[in-house]
Write the structure tokens for this entry.
Amino acid sequence: MSWQTSSNLERVDTCPASVVLPGVPHQGIEADHGTRNHDKAEHGMLPTKLAALVDECTDQAREIAYVLDVKLRKVVRVRESARDYGELAKWEIGTTPDFIGRLNATTYRVRDWKSSKLVTTPRQNPQLISQALAVFSYFGAAVVDAGFGYLSHDMDDACTWTAFEVPELWDRLERILVRGHNAKPDQLKTSSQCDYCRCLTTCPAKSAEVKSLATTFGVDIEASIDAMPAEQVGELYVKLKTFEKLVGRADEAVKARARREPLPLGGGKILRLIECEGRKSLDRERVAEFIASHGEDIDSFQKVGNPYSFLKEVRSK
């Protein structure tokens, strides 16, 4: 599969080595979850705020594939099948906006749906730049409202470009393709783009990070972390997330193997995947209806637990 698609551009720009290092495509649990969310969005099943953004538009189009030529600075619509770009030439980029709609005679809206994980801000994001350029060129727009809609949070993150900015946007994409075509294996840089990189398991930088974890801690892990400077703890957190990704891929591969055959675990135990028709759980809505139908106050049945906290990655101001 070609790396010259809009979803890969930021990774290529950040770490050109990812173009030339060995690797394999990966479709894990998170990717499957994202695909299901996209399928729902494609069929109009959007949360309230994002649905309102779509409803404001006329001439709506979903999952249409375009190919951009950064040398000729032209855009063509390929075929109805999303992300089916055919054979991409050296200076071409394939992109498939999740949603395009018209706000007025000269203003269009383009959105790419994301599940929950924050990505680079719209104005700096090459994926969104390519989608905006597709709209500018193919539809002759003067203004494009472009953004990411986060399906799990019903949150919109958008910016506005005008036709005056189009040459600069083309220049940005051309520079990225040049970096990709001139990529060398030692042009490595770790970032959030590593999470879904096809080279994650073969990347020298990631291998070095995992090996360094073995020498990071003393006997008392909590005390070791507590004694570190805050910056070092942050770096450690990033390394741990990489380790989690690698372990996660291994875990998914083991489960795939267990689907095919039982795996001996020692001590008379085996690992075997058991498929179930469905998951049984309490239908809370029906329980609430039943309680209300008997004249009871549903709030009196609510259980209040202890306060809890969780980690959340946010953008620094």
Notes: DSSP finds ten helices and ten strands in the chain. The first strand starts at residue 58 and ends at 61.
